[in-house]
């Protein structure tokens, strides 16, 4: 007899019933967490409790679902591979087109670091801005919200439903 035999009916991919559910796990902090960690980690009976908590979340359902996935569906494993010269040139062309599109509209909201010369900015760029005092996170967020209001009707729905004070909190 295997653990999966005790789990009940086998879930069927696409039929639901295996969606995200609340975990059966203890919640603790501070001293309570330290005591609980000791019980589960050091005490002889802790192993049994850990196993019971794990089993109550039915991890075998994931195994059952994975066996039902069609082999023709590509996996999500996407290793980084070096591009051929032709592929690299094509990627450069697409990147240039993207840069040109971004320079036309969204960068007027999001890019004031180097006079809109570079449409993409890293966290380091924003960190330098914040440290120098040229910009605050709130100012950046207000510019992003202005861009969203004009350019993205799907996300704009959030702005329509929530007052700005809630979004900025």
Describe this structure in words.
The chain is an all-alpha fold. The protein folds into two domains: 3-68, no CATH class; 85-168, no CATH class. Helices cover 59% and strands 0% of the residues. The chain contains ten helices and no strands. It has helices at 3-6, 30-41, 46-56, 60-68, 85-104, 107-110, 123-132, 137-151, 153-161, 164-168. The protein is extended, with a radius of gyration of 26 Å.
Characteristics:
single chain; 169 residues; mainly alpha; 2 domains; 10 helices
Describe the secondary structure blueprint for this structure:
Layout: H1 3-6, H2 30-41, H3 46-56, H4 60-68, H5 85-104, H6 107-110, H7 123-132, H8 137-151, H9 153-161, H10 164-168
Helix pairs in contact: 2-3, 8-9
Spatial shape:
extended
Please give the share of residues in helix.
55-70%
Poorly predicted regions: none
Q: Given the structure, what is the number of helices?
A: 10
Judged by helices, strands and strand pairing, the structural class is mainly alpha
Oligomer: single chain
State the end-to-end CA separation: 53 Å
Chain-averaged pLDDT: 73
One letter per element, helices H and strands E, the order comes to HHHHHHHHHH
Number of strands: 0
Tally of separate domains: 2
Radius of gyration: 26 Å
Portion in strands:
under 5%
Largest sheet: none
Short structural summary:
The chain has 169 residues and is mainly alpha-helical. It contains ten helices and no strands. It is 59% helix and 0% strand.
